[in-house]
Predict the 3D structure of the following.
Amino acid sequence: MNRILTCAAFTMFLSACTTMSPDECRVANWQQIGYRDGQNGNDPSIIQRYSQDCAEAGVVADSDLWRKGFQQGTVLYCSPDNGYRVGKQGREYYGVCESEQFLNNYQLGRQEYLVQQRIAEIDRQIGDIDRQLNSLKDSDQDKQKRNVLQSKRRDLVRERSSLLSPSYNINFSF
């Protein structure tokens, strides 16, 4: 039984590494695939994986058409608004945009994403502390634990409050 599960897990792992099936390689519209990849801001090195997958199927990937489509797709991806959205979603950025506005907005969105992730982590930690506090008895040893836990909880609440407070970052350049 263990052997079957191991084989199944290994097969799923291998299929997750495959980017294109042989059938997809045979009917591929490389410019359209590149466009989609560019529009999604995918890592440009994905064409190498396509080429590898398709070579195994006896098909040559048209990297020139793919690059042409990729360039067209990045025009949509690289808008400043999308930079903020991509950052706020916590998505990885592969350096495909030349626009400084995109990158600035990506960094703003990414910062907001990281703050939200930290707040969620703090909330989990506070919940854990609250559960621990509720399980403590009135013994002297538990009173010491209670004091330590309450102190940690206060620190976390303070950090959470500071993360939720608006901060103003004003840059002037002349």
Q: What stands out?
A: Residues 52 and 61 are 9 Å apart (CA to CA).
